[in-house]
Specification:
The protein is mainly alpha-helical. The radius of gyration is 19 Å and the shape is globular.
Length: 274
């Protein structure tokens, strides 16, 4: 019971801070998500700091921060695409540093260093394109919808699972998740999309429903992806930063797959818009 109360309080505070920062505007969005992406990347690297592997935590984290910042500056219209060329020196430094580290597993170290940037930092960099429209102006509608749909799906799946769940969805990775919970989460998310369509006319009802379904499915598989890594590393949580939830990466794992999927979906809607 104590853990449930602790988990609820932590979750509510986290969601409140996130929503306030998103609503507060462009600068607060940048500062908060720079912090969140950095914390997630550090947790990822520390999880992989095992006897067989030693990723470059400091240089990898700095590169991740540079990638997020470059994405933000380009998406907001403050810098041209050439800003991404600033990442080339960081890419070279990571490889050169490995030469001088004299570690026993250089290839694994490089693989995990670069994969952390791709797995964590790249999605957060793409998030800035969801948070800004084609002219570079900050718009909270889609980013707020993305997080809302993810949270609604997670909550709906949890409630449906504990009341109706009987058939495991993916027993090898997450024994407690059920097909009933997954379907329930999707239904709740579709309801949330219908509500959004009645408030925001930027997308049609059909487009909002497509947004919701893709977010729900991405949320499910994003959670499974992190579960796969943690099981392979034989750890329960990525960290201890959030009481009752584990680490920051545990709290945001669902969104990491949802961001690139949403980015592509919105780009396609814009491209095929009559």
């Amino acid at each position: 019971m104590k853990n449930i109360v602790q988990r609820t309080i932590t979750g509510v505070l986290f969601v409140a801070i996130l929503i306030i920062a998103i609503i507060a505007g462009d600068v607060w969005y940048y500062l908060l998500f720079l912090l969140l992406s950095t914390l997630c990347l550090i947790e990822f690297y520390k999880s992989f700091k095992i006897p067989e592997t030693s990723p470059q935590i400091v240089i990898g984290t700095i590169t991740g921060m540079m990638l997020f910042t470059a994405g933000y500056l380009h998406a907001s219209g403050n810098q041209p695409f050439i800003i991404f060329l600033s990442l080339i020196p960081a890419y070279l430094v990571i490889q050169l540093s490995e030469i001088y580290r004299k570690k026993q597993t250089p290839l694994k170290n490089l693989q995990h260093t670069f994969f952390g940037i791709i797995y964590v930092s790249l999605p957060f960099a793409l998030l800035s394109y969801i948070a800004h429209n084609s002219s570079g102006a900050y718009s909270l509608v889609y980013i707020l919808a993305l997080f809302t749909f993810t949270w609604v799906n997670d909550t709906g799946a949890y409630l449906s699972g504990i009341t109706l769940g009987k058939h495991p969805l993916f027993k090898r990775l997450s024994p407690k998740k059920s097909w009933e919970g997954a379907v329930g989460g999707i239904i709740f998310t579709l309801i949330a999309a219908w509500i959004y369509s009645s408030i925001f006319s930027s997308l049609s009802l059909l487009a909002w429903l497509g947004f919701a379904i893709l977010t729900a499915l991405s949320s499910i598989y994003g959670d499974f992806a992190e579960s796969l890594y943690k099981r392979n590393l034989k750890i329960k949580d990525s960290g201890k930063l959030l009481p009752g939830h584990g680490g920051m990466l545990d709290r945001l794992d669902s969104i990491l797959m949802g961001i690139p999927v949403t980015f592509v979906y919105l780009q396609l809607l814009t491209y095929f818009k009559p």
